[in-house]
Amino acid sequence: MAQQAFVTLATNDSYARGAMVLGKSLRNHKTSKKLVVLIGPHVSDQARAVLHKIFDEVRLVNVLDSGDTAHLAMMKRPDLGVTFTKLHCWTLTHYSKCVFMDADTLVVSNIDELFDREERSAAPDPGWPDCFNSGVFMFRPSNETYGKLLQYCTEHGSFDGGDQGVLNGFFSDWATADINKHLPFIYNMSSIAIYTYLPAFKQYGANAKVVHFLGQMKPWSYTYNPTQRGVRGDAQASSQPGLLLQWWALYSAEVVPMLIREYGDQPFNSGCEVRPKHTEQENNHPLVSSAERKQRWEQGQADYMGIDSFDNIQKKLDVFLK
């Protein structure tokens, strides 16, 4: 039986970290499918190394850009041009079926059942439900389809300047042809919908399997305080911080240590974590016995901003390894 895969895309290091969290969330929920990430040339060597440890296949692709500044300006999202690169996923013909997931999605439950669906299966976009949201969709890789998509781009462009406009234009009968290809919203629950239809979120949100952080503000756009386990940033985020906290908890616990190992002694800016400078009192760590420190760790009370910070742990590892 031909292999099947979840596929995502990262064109820079910020989205690469999103892909790392997505890949980890799929692994943690015991997917039986392969994991594939398409990356652009701007992804750093360190990020690529971490991606290789999480994904079964890391494929370098050329970045396609719509160059459609007019439509992108209407959406105030000039960054969406490179999402045309997503079209490369149709070239993964060594897989029989794939589910594409944007790097700003987070899996909170096993979703392998999506592979029982057919091509063009997707959830409606919350902004215009007759269009499907291209953040999560089932597809069958095909070089023929890939060629037709590129031809469509050349002849018609995209009504929104990004991949979603292209895919909805190309698969124009999605809204009316087959209701079975309309995925339940729980497979692509937009974080924006939480604020626009809060009663529905309270009623159905607990059943969500995939959270999609739509909009310009991504999880890595905020800052995280590991001591208080809180997210700081846009005021909108603070009204429903639970989903962002899930993303940050996974990123901090499972992705950041991998990045630290890859960067070693090289200083690096994660782009999505700001560690406040220690005060003099914090730098003068009180003496704590090994037994008491172990007990605090076991109770989830590690001093992440002080003696148990990532920097101090790295120093200890360096001394030990040398």
Short description:
This protein has helices spanning 13-28, 45-54, 69-75, 143-156, 163-170, 174-177, 191-196, 198-204, 235-239, 242-263, 280-283, 290-298, 310-321, and strands at 3-10, 34-39, 57-60, 95-101, 105-107, 122-124, 132-139, 189-190, 210-212, 223-225, 230-232. The chain is of the alpha/beta class and 322 residues long. It is globular, with a radius of gyration of 21 Å.
Radius of gyration, in angstroms, nearest whole number: 21 Å
Low-confidence stretches: 68-81, 235-239, 271-287
Tally the helices: what do you get?
A: 13
Reading side by side through the largest sheet, how are the strands ordered? 3-2-1-4-7-6
Order of helices and strands: EHEHEHEEEEHHHEHHEEEHHHHH
CATH class of the largest domain: Alpha Beta
Q: Helix- and strand-based class?
A: alpha/beta
Task: Determine the CATH topology of the largest domain.
Answer: Spore Coat Polysaccharide Biosynthesis Protein SpsA, Chain A
The chain-level mean pLDDT equals 79
- Residues in helices, as a percent range: 25-40%
Total separate domains = 2
Q: Gap between N and C termini, in Å?
A: 48 Å
Major sheet details: 6 strands, mixed
Strand content: 15-25%
Please tell me the CATH architecture of the largest domain by its name: Alpha-Beta Complex
**Which oligomeric state applies?**
single chain
The dominant shape is globular
Cofactor: Mn(2+)
EC number: 2.4.1.186
Pfam families: Glyco_transf_8
Pathway: Glycan biosynthesis; glycogen biosynthesis
